[in-house]
Amino acid sequence: MAVFKKVQNICAKIVESNYFVAFSIVMVIINFFIITTEVSDDEDVDNLYEIIISSDRVFNIYFIFEAIISIIASTDSWKSFNGFWTYFDFVVIFVNSLYLIGEGFNLGIPNFSAIRLWSIFKYLPRIKWLRGINTIFRALKGSGPVIRDIALFVIFVFIFCGILGVHMYGGKLKYRCINEYGVLYDDEQICSTTSSGYQCPEGYSCLRTNKNPYYNTVGFDNIFYSCLTIFQIITMEGWSDIFYMTSDSSSYWGFIFYLVIIIFGNWFILQLIIAVISNNLMDEIDEEDNEDESEEGEEENDGEKVLVDKVKNDESGVSISVQSKKRSIKKKRNIVVRYIYKFVNCDFMLKLRRSAIVNFVQKILHYYE
Fold first, then answer.
1. Nearest-angstrom CA–CA distance, 280 and 273
2. Which one in 36, 253, 304, 354 has a CA-CA gap of 20 to 30 Å to 105?
3. In this structure, which topology does domain 2-126 adopt according to CATH?
């Protein structure tokens, strides 16, 4: 245990070092540009740039090392160990190790190692002028319980609307206009088997096919397809095309269904989530402002105490000089000087001078607030 404690202390010093933080941020930025740059398949590497481009393995090893020492450094307490970034480091180790093993044995494992780029958010709050990122993270964490309740409401809305969608439009988006020779009138045109909706032209009949629109990604055949389509409607991306398809398959009275989804899904739920996060963010900002004000108040009080003590010390020094001057006055027997001196150094004048100094100091401090 003593050896592990020493190793833990060494890892903690490394992780807390500003040089290590700066180096890790630089590595993430370089790795970002390397990942987003097209790599040449030519085996002949001519320059240093292409050598760096083809050196993703070096970054895998470094970020595995960085994750390991971060995990060891967080073992000083359960609170620091049981955190998001510790679990994230475990994921980084697993993904990068899996990629290195797959590359070494030609297993064809997909490369998910780019997830390590998210580690930059672990070090950005360590920069003084970027500490507001911690405020955002705390706001998201504080919004968790409320967002969980909202998520339960979202699940209820999805299930309710999904069942309603299956009941209203189940299988209807597969109908197309087909003639007697099996030729489609329009591959994208949905038709209706009832008197409402789109009617096929003469010589064509509305028959069921085995294909939904958009490569079978839009439909209401079951609850899963229905929830997927509802999610697309909530995002307001291409919802009008889906509305026209369902209207062609039945009638235009289905706009009520879309109205309910858009009001509850887009306007209400998404705005509610944004409002919760915004309120928590404002609370975190206000809390930080209050902490800063309390710290400034403590520093101001300490400064006032130091100044008052200094004034008292000056007054004590003045009293000592007064005593020495009194002796000289008594020796000289100068009555006029003695009374003037007593007037200047009487209790009233001392209080007056002290209050003036204190007021002057307070005015200076209030001026710089």
1. 11
2. 36
3. Four Helix Bundle (Hemerythrin (Met), subunit A) (1.20.120)
